[in-house]
Design brief:
single chain; 394 residues; alpha/beta; Rossmann fold; Rna Polymerase Sigma Factor, Chain: A; 4-stranded mixed β-sheet; 15% strand; binds nicotinamide-adenine-dinucleotide; binds magnesium ion
Length: 394
Amino acid sequence: MRSISIFGATGSIGEQTVDLLLRAGGAGTHRVVALTGGRNLARLAEMARLLRAEIAVCADPRDLRELRERLAGSGVEAAAGPEALLEAADRPADWVMSAIVGAAGLAPGFRALRHGGTLALANKESLVTAGPLLMAEAARQRARILPVDSEHSAIFQALVGEDIAAVERIILTASGGALRDWPIERLAAATVAEALAHPNWTMGHRITIDSASMFNKALEVIETREFFGVAPEQIEVIIHPESLIHSMVGYRDGAIMAHMGAPDMRHSIGYALNWPERAPLPVARLDLARIGQLTFRAPDLQRYPALRLAREVMARRGLAGAAFNAAKEVALDHFLAGGIGFMDMGCVVEAVLEVLDPELGRENDRMTLEDVQAVDHLARQRAGEIVRRQAGER
Ligand code: NAD
Ligand code: MG
C-alpha cells in the first residue's frame, strides 16, 4: 500500500487532494502518514479521522490542546508548530503533497525529499525561493518532484517523450485575473473583494489576488525556469481568458504542444497522484463545439509590473527569488489588510529588490537553506519599513 502525506491538507489544493484520495478508496487503499493544516482544527481532525492518518499537525503550538481534544479516541497523534511540521516530514512516505501556501512550505518539502520518494509540488514558492537548492537535493536523494501547478503540469505533460533540447519556447497561459478588463487608471483603487472575483478558477485567497496582479504568473515564470532548466528568454506569457489551454511547449520544428482541459486543479493533482499512469478523474470534459473559440492577447507590462520584475529576478538568480517572494508576501498582507493599494504591491517589491541588491550576490551552487531563510527575513523587514514609509508620506 502506498504511503502518503499532505502538507497543507486543509487548503484549497489539500482539500482537492483529499477528495481524490477518498474517491480512490481513502484509508482502504492508501496508508496516510501525516496531514497538516493551519488554523482550521475541526477540518484537520475530521480528515485525519476519515483517512486514519498517523499524525495530524497544526501550525500554531497554542492550538495543540484543542487539536488533541478533537482527535481524542481516534488513535491519530497530534502535534503543532514548525518543528513538528519538520518531524512530520521526516516520517517516510512514498508520495508527499507540498501544498502549504507561501515560504512556510519550503522547509517541510525540502525535508521530505530525504526519503527519495515523490514530492508533488504545489508550493511554487519553494522553487522560486530555493530552486537550485531543491533540484540539487532531489537529485542527490534520488527523489522525484512532480509539478502540481496547472501550467507546470501541462508543460510536463507536453514534454512526455520529447527531448528538452528540442524545446524552443515555453508559453505560459494566464487568465489575466479578476481585473484584466479594467481600465488601467482604475487599478490603483481596486479593492480586495474586486481582486478576489476570479473569472475561472476557485483557489485560496492569496493566490487569487496574485492572479489579478500577475504576481502569480511572475512566480510561475521563475518556477518554469527552475523546474525545467530553460533560459529566461525561452519563457513567454500570454493572456488566455478562457483558461482552457493550461500552457504550451513550442519545439524547434515550429510545432506547439498545448495541454487543454477544464480549469479544475484536480486534473494536475490527479496526474501527479497517478503518474506515470493516467487514471479516470472526476473533472468536466470539454465540449469544444460549445466553447467555439479560444482567444489570446499579449500582457501589458504597465498593468502587470510583476512580469517585468520576474525577468530581473531571473537575471540575478541566487537569492533574488527569496527576496522577491518574501516582499510579495508582505505587500500582499498589507493589501489584504487595506493598508496599501493594488498597484502599490509592485512598487513595494521593486523597492525591496533595489535596497537588497548587494545582499543577493550568493552563487546558486553555494546557497543554503539558511541563506534563503535569512534573505526571506531581511526582505520582510525591508518591505515592512517601505510600507510604513509610504504610509507616512501619504
Ligand atoms: P490555501 O491558503 O487554500 O491553503 C494553504 C494551506 O497551508 C492550508 O492548509 C493552511 O492552513 C496551511 N498554512 C498556511 N500557512 C501556514 C503556515 N505558516 N504553516 C503551516 N501551514 C500553513 O492555499 P492554496 O490555494 O491551496 O495554495 C497552496 C499552494 O499551492 C500555494 O503555494 C499556491 O501557490 C499553490 N497553488 C495553488 C493553486 C490553487 O488552485 N489553489 C493552484 C496552483 C498552485
Ligand atoms: Mg498556476
